[in-house]
Amino acid sequence: MKIHDATTAxxxxxxxxxxxxxxxxxxxxxxDIVNAVNRGEEFRTQKNPMxxxxxxxxxxxxxxxxxxxxxxxFEELYPDPPLMGVDAQDxxxxxxxxxxxxxxxxxxxxxAFQQQHAFxxxxxxxxxxxxxxxxxxxEKSLAWLDEVLADRQYIAGERYxxxxxVAQCAVDFGRVVKIAIQPDQKNLARWHEEVSxxxxxxx
Length: 203
Ligand SMILES: N[C@@H](CCC(=O)N[C@@H](CS)C(=O)NCC(=O)O)C(=O)O
Known about the structure:
By secondary structure, the chain is an alpha+beta fold. The protein has helices spanning about 10-20, 40-45, 65-75, 90-115, 130-150, 160-175, 185-195, and strands at about 1-5, 30, 55, 65. The chain has 2 domains: about 1-75, 3-Layer(aba) Sandwich (Glutaredoxin); about 90-200, Glutathione S-transferase Yfyf (Class Pi), Chain A, domain 2 (Up-down Bundle), CATH 1.20.1050.
């Protein structure tokens, strides 16, 4: 088993943090995303037709892409500590917050980068106005998340979950497009300090 990885990119980091929280060791193989090896014929036909990272490759050659799917795989194999909920209600609640973090914060943050940065020129169609709108959406989501965190320690409640990981990766990646926690967003700053102090944050 190994994970095709890229240390600078936010989606692979979601998986690395998740795995670090589980306390398991999985070998990582770096893919040269700068030279778009992930978008080449070989990678697309053999690893992931979407041409993106991360990809989990199992010993039988099965390749599983999509960060959420890879996290699910490890959650099923290693349920402790639970990062995706413990019973029907809790699992649904974590999933709700995870999807909110993905669609309301992570996606607009990465779009603010993708839609205007030279790295993605020729990889995806770019509309700079869409980058600006996405940045604005991500900033609004940060303000909303600050309110959410007023009465709870973590995003989905009192336990650290995958929703925190997705939000943490979005906030940290936001630096490259100048999306930042504002000085008055004290709840968000407190939460970010806490998740950043976990050993997994180094992943
Ligand atoms: N939906 C996918 C998104 C994967 C993705 O967009 N990966 C980015 C890195 S964060 C990538 O491979 N970028 C390089 C490229 O698009 O060429 C997931 O959840 O893993």
